[in-house]
Design goal:
Layout (H helix, E strand, L loop, with lengths): L5 H17 L5 H12 L3 H29 L1 H20 L4 H18 L1 H12 L4 H11 L2 H38 L33 H30 L4 H8 L2 H14 L6 H22 L4 H27 L4 H30 L3 H18 L7
Subcellular location: Cell membrane
Protein name: MFS family arabinose efflux permease
Membrane topology: Multi-pass membrane protein
Length: 394
């Protein structure tokens, strides 16, 4: 595939990812309360169902990645479009706890095989070691998922109710997401011989590095991604509450929190422009340091620098999203990327599932001082990244 022809693929996958994230990960923030009221259930039950979906996605990730390694991204992502639609349609018809949990379980299967990791694996399956720029491009587009998803979900709920909102999202997966994923080029078939796949069986762009990295590399990457996703999800759930606990007004807290999304996109633009000239390990180290730096500024100077914290945290989170796709690629190469990516990212999904609850308990105990905990977790991720060495990569 020629570089000048990459943009249709990036646009298609980026738009499909925006739809996937907006209709699942960002859905409960707007619909949990009306959904709970409509079903006569506590709101915590809705969030428990969402946690179930995240845990299911963690379990399914390696299998989805292996399927993409074997078949390419097109059939897998087309299938997840159907799963997203089925899960959202089932959610719109939920009548109680059991049907609610089953609907979110279907959505969890779709999330495990249809969010960033699957899109990254689809790109690597097509482009091999040259996928870094395309991975960045996808995250630039899908970085607006909350910007699009939250207002759209809120408007649909106001006009059609939460059931109508879920049905509309399901229709969008069929009418928009499915054709977009169907437009992905077919990947070259791999031999189905009984012997293990050898490097010479793969296209030149998809062969593995000659020397494997040290054994601890996968463990360190897995920890880094779990730690940073814990922080990201905790901030997404509790940042306004933390700002209010620090003395900011609710209106100011909402305004400051709104800076995170644009800062994420700005961080990805920085990675796409300046930082792409360097090893992605450097980008990841810089990004991982931004949250602890923002916490230090906030807790030393007070909520008056809350906006600076939001910008630093958001920029770091945006770059780290790209690192989740590029670091496994440069250390291990493209062969078996999908399955390896699913395994490395599985702890991240678990951390993500429990982050709102665990960090909420920290806030109840320590107030805004809970930020020292997130900063400490971030610094351990920085240390792990400095343990890795660029010369061990492909």
């Amino acid at each position: 595939m020629q570089p000048q022809r990459d943009w249709p693929l990036v646009l298609a996958l980026g738009t499909a990812q925006t739809l996937a994230w907006g209709s699942t990960y960002y859905l409960p923030a707007l619909l949990a309360k009306p959904m709970a009221a409509g079903l006569g259930l506590p709101e915590t039950t809705i969030w428990a169902a969402f946690t179930l979906a995240l845990l299911a996605s963690a379990a399914l990730g390696p299998f989805a990645g292996r399927a993409i390694d074997r078949l390419g991204g097109r059939p897998v992502l087309m299938g997840t479009s159907l799963l997203f639609a089925a899960g959202l349609a089932a959610l719109s018809q939920a009548q109680g706890m059991v049907s609610l949990m089953l609907a979110w379980l279907v959505l969890g299967v779709a999330m495990g095989s249809g969010l960033y990791e699957a899109a990254f694996a689809a790109l690597v399956r097509l482009k091999g070691t040259e996928a870094r720029a395309s991975i960045t491009g996808i995250t630039l587009i899908a970085g607006f998922a909350s910007t699009v998803g939250w207002p759209l979900s809120g408007w649909l709920e106001a006009e059609l109710g939460w059931r109508g909102a879920c049905l509309t999202w399901a229709a969008l997966h069929l009418l928009l997401g499915l054709p977009l994923n169907a437009s992905i080029p077919r990947a070259a078939a791999l031999p189905s011989s009984p012997r293990p796949v050898q490097p010479e069986d793969m296209p030149v762009a998809a062969q593995a590095p000659l020397a494997p990295p040290p054994r601890h590399t996968a463990w360190l990457l897995s920890y880094v991604f779990a730690a940073t996703w814990f922080i990201s999800t905790a901030m997404a759930a509790h940042l306004p509450q933390l700002l209010v606990a620090s003395g900011a007004t609710l209106a100011a807290a909402v305004a400051i929190g709104a800076l995170v999304g644009p800062a994420q996109v700005a961080g990805r633009l920085l990675e796409f422009g300046l930082l792409r000239r360097f090893h992605p390990l450097l980008s990841a180290r810089i990004a991982a340091m931004l949250h602890p730096l923002g916490v230090l500024c906030w807790l030393v100077m007070g909520p008056t620098v809350g906006a600076l914290f939001a910008v630093l945290h958001g920029a770091g989170n945006g770059i780290l999203t790209i690192a989740k796709g590029t670091l496994p690629l440069v250390f291990f190469g493209p062969q078996g990327y999908g399955q390896r990516q699913g395994i490395i990212m599985a702890p991240s999904r678990v951390a993500q599932a429990f982050a709102p609850l665990l960090f909420g308990l920290c806030i109840e105990r320590f107030g805004s001082g809970a930020l020292w905990i997130s900063a400490a977790i971030g610094l351990t991720a920085v240390a792990a990244l400095f343990w890795l060495r660029a010369h061990d990569s492909n």
